[in-house]
Amino acid sequence: MAAIGGTKVNPKKFHKNQIPFYLYLVPIAIFMGMPIVYIINHAFKPMDELFAFPPKFFVSHPSLINFQNLFQAAGTSSIPFSRYVFNSLVVTVAVVGLSVLISTMAAFALSKMKFRFKKPIFEINNLALMFVATAVTIPRYLTISQIGILDTYWAHILPQVAMPVCLFLIKQFVDGVPNSLIEAAQLEGAGSWKIYYKIILPLIKPAIATGAILVFQNVWNNIETSNLFTTSEGIKTLAFYMNTLSTAGSVQGQGMAAAASLIMFIPNLLLFIVMQSSVMNTMAHSGLK
Amino acid sequence: MSKKQRNPHDKRRLTKRMVREWGWGYLFVAPWIVGVSIFFLRSMVQSLQFAFNRVELSNGVILHPLENGIFENFVKVFTTDVNFPMILANFGIGLVLQLPVIISFSLIIALLLNSKIRCRGLFRLIFFLPVIIATGPVMNQLSAQGVSSVPMVSQNALLGVLQGLPEFIYEPINNLFSSLIMILWNSGIQILIFLAGLQKVPRAMYEAAKIDGASAWETFWKITLPSVKSLILLNSIYTVVTLATGGSNEIIELIYTATYTATQGYSYAMAMSWIYTAVVAVILIIVFLLLKEKSDRKVVYEQKRVVMKGV
Lengths: 289, 311
Known about the structure:
The complex is a heterodimer of chains A (289) and B (311).
Chain A: H1 2-6, H2 19-43, H3 47-50, H4 65-76, H5 81-112, H6 118-130, H7 137-147, H8 153-161, H9 164-175, H10 179-187, H11 192-203, H12 205-220, H13 224-229, H14 238-246, H15 251-285
Chain B: H1 2-5, H2 16-51, E1 53-57, E2 61-65, H3 72-79, H4 83-114, H5 120-135, H6 137-144, H7 149-162, H8 167-185, H9 188-200, H10 203-211, H11 216-227, H12 229-245, H13 250-259, H14 266-291, H15 296-310
Antiparallel strand pairs in B: 1-2
């Protein structure tokens, strides 16, 4: 937040001209923010409030019982809890890093370089964009078993690295980078690689941040790869584990699910808060004018 | 640019420079091509193959030719399945209705967020939050528990008020209200993209228009809208794609259950998903044709004209 203040986009003083904006923004903002408040409240509800009818929005007697149950259940399993966290971190970091690298490189090439088959390649991306992911799970399983990476970290990482949506978004932003900037760099003797990381990357930072958030979302919450492409328990991810715990079916499962979803949600929120200042701020300063 | 420089006679001949340039291009896309061709293209081709055969999944895949013509699965989707064509039609109509609302809503919010107000950062944070909620486990939680209480509470309140009205009035209002929540939750990325575009519009242009005496309304139509037109296309495509492939989609669920139901068979599910993909593709093509920019030059020209007027 401090960074946003630094750009001086916010006026210092309150002015009555601003009132109409607040009239629209505040109600919608409250409406949008409610689910977050609900999730936080829900996780701290004791059993009787969880099942209260009509459901309550705010918790009246907050307790940590759901978290206790969750960690107790986690403690009884043969695999330590930290193992799942570690697995998830490895997979998420690898996928986000790799897919941002690959997408930005491909976007740069498809948008600013000259070579044959450029158009068909992008059309293939658009086709992949539309295709239902559920439909390719079994062929994908076959591919993964043929490559021989079944039940390894690669089975988590590789299928998720190529994200068509990510490439699509980033390419549109690279299109907006003026050609004259690149030509100027070429005249100065910069090679393709240098143009990529000295000019393109800094200019499309907002798109990268957006793409990274999207990829993170997908990977962090993904239970399919654990479900389908791995068999040994020690290699599955946190999302999968949380899912098994909370769908165990018991009455306690409900409360544990609420606690688990709060735990799973916090990294999302943190990442978003970190990224969003870069998303919003770079716009004002970038050479994209 | 490239067409102008290249001599038509050596179109086929590769100059040394072209080879170098092409080489770099291929080098930059190579990792992406490898990834997509292994994990998307190959799987998609296979699934198409499955759709035209009877699949036996037993320790590997065995394909049997179909008895009643090669399109048996596709025909079956429309003839035997009661739900699929209906749901597909509903989905198409819903998408066409939702799209303009989502786009205009996110543009309006982006415009509001781009104006000079206090706590702008906070508001931006809140409006981007649905991106985190809608895809995450949080959303599943909200719906699975049946206490998606935020919409429920307001809807129940609304029900009480509207119960007296005849159904043909009540139904669209109710629909609109429940989809309003969907609209709000589906427009995080779109707002962000519009905001990015709005910030790129040079201030001088607005000042010039103001000096010239243009009203806010005119400024919006003559400057703001032309400037974000390409983003409207981008956002529309993005919206269609996310709505079509997102988790809370009946057709996806239908395909998912069909995939793992022995009676209907895997190849049947594949036929379904290809039909679905075709429908989405048609919608996307229509959107593209409707919103395509005539040419970049025209927009620039119009913007220049506005500036010139101001001078």
